[in-house]
Amino acid sequence: MLVWLYWVVSLTIATLCSIYVVKKHPAYGFAILTAFYVVYLLASQILATRIIEFDLGFYTFFSPAAVFVYPFIAQVVDMINEVYGERMTHLSILIAFVTQVLFVLLVGMASSLSPAPFFELDEAWMSLFGLSIRITVASWITFLICSNLDAWVFAALKRRFAEKENKFRHGVMLNPYVWLRSGASDLVSLTLDSLIFVVIAFYGGPLPLLPLLIGQLVSKNVIGFLDNPWFVLYKKMLND
């Protein structure tokens, strides 16, 4: 249960801060949302190194710990898209991608240095940050495809149902068209993310491919579904 407390508190803080800045200081909103985006991506790079059990009660799946962060990434893409549009969302994705390249280069720089003779944690450090080329490439390819697809699907659904959404008279929290574009774009991107990353990163390797693939598909989409209310809250508070 503790993990869900961390998850709810983190997502709530990020959502409320984003709402405040976008409403009160709109000139800085894009920068703040992009900053959250970058933080989520950096966290996912580190958390992906730990494989966890994801227990649904009736079945236990195995997946990287980063599955708890991936829906945050999909959500912040939607938050940027909702306010600043598809073009700026693609720009944010490009900025975030450049930061990930820099992160890997800086980790590589540090890894190339000789450790101090009294530093006893070098093996642990290298096992955590010693990103393999294959996993790094898989992560970059997956990120570019799925994030841009998320942005496109979200914007397309928003345009497609704009008139019906505006005519809905029962409040944002009940508006099915707001829920649709958030949920559908996340479902598409998170599902494709799991398929592309696991296959590229682990196919033919020592880890069991099918359990990892199923674990990521189920856990990402379950958590991705659960974070939709925060996007709808974001939309509602922007309109208030």
Describe the protein in words.
With 240 residues, the chain is mainly alpha-helical. It has one domain (2-239): Arp2/3 complex 21 kDa subunit ARPC3. 78% of the residues lie in helices and 4% in strands. A two-stranded antiparallel sheet has the order 1-2. α3 (70-111) runs parallel beside α7, α5 runs antiparallel to α7 and α7 runs antiparallel to α8. The model has no long low-confidence stretch (mean pLDDT 86).
Tag the structure with descriptive keywords.
two-stranded antiparallel sheet; 4% strand; mainly alpha; 2 strands; Arp2/3 complex 21 kDa subunit ARPC3
Please sum up the structure shown.
The protein is 78% helix and 4% strand. The protein has 240 residues and is mainly alpha-helical.
Secondary structure layout plus pairing:
Blueprint: H1 2-24, H2 26-47, E1 51-55, E2 60-64, H3 70-111, H4 122-129, H5 133-160, H6 162-167, H7 176-202, H8 209-226, H9 228-239
Helix pairs in contact: 1-2, 1-9, 2-3, 3-5, 3-7, 3-8, 3-9, 5-7, 7-8, 7-9
